[in-house]
Design goal:
The chain has no helices and four strands. With 65 residues, the chain is an all-beta fold. It has a four-stranded antiparallel sheet with strand order 1-2-3-4, with no helix packed on it.
Length: 65
């Protein structure tokens, strides 16, 4: 069964990265506040945040308030 994973670059008030992994029909989300590792084996803090619907995968454009 194929699964979805997404590394999302969000550019609002600076660059932020999010890691999203599909599980049970939703995207589990982690914020990666200090950016992605720049070399193999480097570690970064990832903080779990609220889940997202699968429909956000592939979304491009402004987010309404």
């Amino acid at each position: 069964m194929p699964m979805i994973f997404v590394i999302h670059l969000h550019r609002a008030k600076g660059e932020k990265f999010y890691l999203r992994l599909e599980k049970d029909g939703v995207l589990k989300n982690w914020a990666v506040p200090r950016g992605l590792p720049d070399s193999p084996g480097a570690r970064r803090l990832a903080v779990q945040i609220s889940d997202a619907e699968l429909s956000v995968n592939g979304f491009v454009g402004p987010i309404s308030k």
